[in-house]
Each structure stands twice: as structure tokens, then as C-alpha cells.
């Protein structure tokens, strides 16, 4: 079993000492090898050699996605390309891709961190792991692959897509662990039910899901439909890929690999730290990366740190699930709303399917939001009166929990688009 107890359960003071030493060498590395950071340090009068305490982190410059784009493709690499053994890129939905690189050592550390995340769920060398994340420039497939091999599991690198084949292989190869996005897990579950497959006859025990936000209600739905323990894991290519943080079997927050990453939570407007435990934007500084170190990378992901110790014994702090991104936030009549809040509410309403889409338009200066919800066939073909009642019920729920009015439209089962990778829940027609 890949259980790194001496590190993962390290007393806080020792951990902070390790973090400080690693931060010092990261600062030295970027100041020496990356002109972008050298210039920023000079502007902010940061002396990387005089860095003596973790408190000083607050004086360091932030790095943003735009900085990565402006240095496309290799401008922020801290080693010559000859030392880079792997390149990944994230396309994002707009603009130039961001490109990241790994040395041999980075790949080793990455595999170790993903191995920790798998182990925390309960996966061991006895498991058969089906990786239904895309293999390619996306970090999901390869990241989870190397981590699964590290623990000695039997890996099925099926990659994403081809749902029928996924199911066939899951049955024939006796997959015990499914790895993909939560939305794809749900799609697989629904497809299996449609095919009348007896879930209990499968060998499936665990699911590790990540790459996109999902709600607690969605976890319940996936766990019960597939009869598995479903955990959340988080990461982003700019910082490393999957393996930045993952849940243990308590299923109550994601342990951050704090010996490799420093985490901060800031108020995205003031850029000051939030009060401990408050919601804010996650900011990561890498501590061991050689090819592509980042200093105070602003993720735009919103989460909180959970200060209480975890019963599992790990001392690495936990973050809550990511509830959304600052750029996904909708402002409706002055109220901030995240798609995840809408998801949580919909999942609890009887008669609806867990498939929805949020359409945002602009009327005058205000955002108008319409939520499209799939409903069970029986309801869709029912009398208008019943449909009306359901719409009213959903609207009431959304209004009372979010404090805003949204329009609701019921659509037939299976009419909304399904996704094999990351789901796109918000259709933004505002042309902002
Ligand atoms: O999605 C890395 C990854 C792959 C993580 C597979 C976990 C599993 P990117 O394509 O760079 O990398 O996208 C990163 O996806 O900033 C979040 O907005 C979102 N994201 C990733 N994991 C989660 C999660 C990979 N567990 C972006 N919950 C991040 C919510 C997540 N959002």
C-alpha cells in the first residue's frame, strides 16, 4: 500500500520547516532561470536570498493565467528543454493554450502524489483501475495513470469516450476502480441502468472523480447508482495536474499535498487572505517543481480550508470541494450565484433527472438566468397542470435558497448534451 505516513502525518512545525526550505530553493530557482520572475521580484523589491519565513509569502507577486499565455509556450520554464521529459497543455475555452513541462523528477513526484490520493480512497495494488480520462495534452489520463502504476494497481488505460466499450470492459476486465469526471460517471451509470446491467454483479468498489466541480448530492447519486465509495480529487495543469489534493475515505474534504504545494485562500477582489475557514480563491505556490515552478498561482477556483483535524490522521490540511470558479459566478440582480448551488438544489427535487443546463442572457444591464431541467418521461408527458406544479416547485426552491428569481424550463429526458470529459453546465449568451 502506498501510504506515506512520515510525510502525510508530519507535525505542523516540521512541515512548515520543510515548506520554508523548499520555498527558498524554488525562489532561487525562478529568480535565476525565469526572466519573468526576476523582473517581478525586482519591481516588488523581493530579495529571494533574504527570504526567512513563510509569512513573507504575502509579499511575493501573483502569477495569473494571462502571465502563462504571455509567455507561450516555454517562457516560464525554469530548465532547458533538454531536461524536460513531458509537456502538457490546457486549452481552456478561450484564447491561447497554457503549456507546462515536467522533468524526470517532476514526473516521479507527480506519480507519488497521485498515488497518495488513490491510497487515501482505499485503492491498492490489488485493484483494477479503469482510467476514462483523456490521454493526451490533458493532464488527467497520464497523471492518474502514473499514480496508479506507482501503487502497483492493474491499469486499464481506456481513455475517454466510447461508453458502450467502457461498460463492456468494466464487466469483462473486472474493473474495481473507475476514474473519470463525475459527470461521465453519472452518464456511465445511467447507460448501465438503461442496458439493464446488474450493478451488483460488477466488481466496482471505488470511484475517484475530479476535473470539474460537483456537488455532495451528485456524490450521493453516483455512489448509490454504482454502489461505490466515490471520492473527489482536485488539481490543475498549471500547478501540476491531478494529485494536488484528494479526499480520504472520510469523504469530507480534500487533503492538499502540502509538502509540495503552499496553499493560500484570498479574497479575489482585495487579494488579501480571507479569515481562516472562509470561502475564497485558492492560490498555490509549488515547492518542488523543477521544470515549471509557479509562485502564487491564482487558480480562480473557490473553496475554503477546513481547519479541523481529520480523523484519518493525516495532518495535511483539507480544502472543501471547489464550489465554482470566480469566472463562473453569475451576478443576478446583484446576487452572486454559482452553478453548483443550483445543482445542489435540483438534485433534491423529486421527478427531475440530475441533468441540467444554465442559460445566461443579458436583458438591459441584468443577467437573466434560465435553468433547463430534464424530467422523467412520465412527468413530461403528464398533464400540463403537473408540469406547471413542478416548475413552480423548482422556482420556489431556487428563489428561497438563492434569493433570486430564475426561469425554469422542463425538457425531455436525454435532450441535454452529455459529456465524456468535463461537463459544460453554463451556456453564456451574453457576449461579454
Ligand atoms: O482538470 C486536472 C485534473 C484532472 C484534476 C483529473 C483531477 C482529475 P485542468 O484541465 O488544467 O486540469 O483544469 C483545472 O479544473 O482549476 C478547476 O476549475 C477544475 N477542477 C479540477 N478538479 C476539480 C474538482 C485538470 N475536483 C480546473 N472539483 C481547475 C472542482 C475541479 N473543480
What does this structure look like?
This protein has 432 residues and is an alpha/beta fold. The protein has two domains: 1-327, ANL, N-terminal domain (Rossmann fold), CATH 3.40.50.12780; 330-428, GMP Synthetase, Chain A, domain 3 (2-Layer Sandwich). The chain has helices at residues 5-8, 12-33, 35-43, 65-70, 104-121, 139-151, 163-172, 182-194, 216-226, 339-347, 377-380, 384-402; strands spanning 86-90, 98-102, 128-131, 154-156, 177-180, 206-210, 229-236, 241-247, 254-256, 261-266, 280-286, 297-303, 305-306, 318-319, 324-325, 330-332, 335-337, 352-363, 366-375, 407-412, 426-428. The protein has a nine-stranded mixed beta sheet. It is globular, with a radius of gyration of 22 Å. The mean pLDDT is 94. The site of 5'-O-[hydroxy(phenylacetyl)phosphoryl]adenosine has 22 residues, from α6, β7, β8 and β12.
What layout of secondary structure does this protein have?
Elements (H helix, E strand, L loop, with lengths): L4 H4 L3 H22 L1 H9 L21 H6 L15 E5 L7 E5 L1 H18 L6 E4 L7 H13 L2 E3 L6 H10 L4 E4 L1 H13 L11 E5 L5 H11 L2 E8 L4 E7 L6 E3 L4 E6 L13 E7 L10 E7 L1 E2 L11 E2 L4 E2 L4 E3 L2 E3 L1 H9 L4 E12 L2 E10 L1 H4 L3 H19 L4 E6 L13 E3 L4
Parallel strand pairs: 3-4, 3-5, 5-6, 6-7, 18-21, 19-20
Antiparallel strand pairs: 1-2, 7-8, 8-9, 9-14, 10-11, 11-12, 12-15, 13-14, 16-17, 18-19
The structure holds 5'-O-[hydroxy(phenylacetyl)phosphoryl]adenosine.
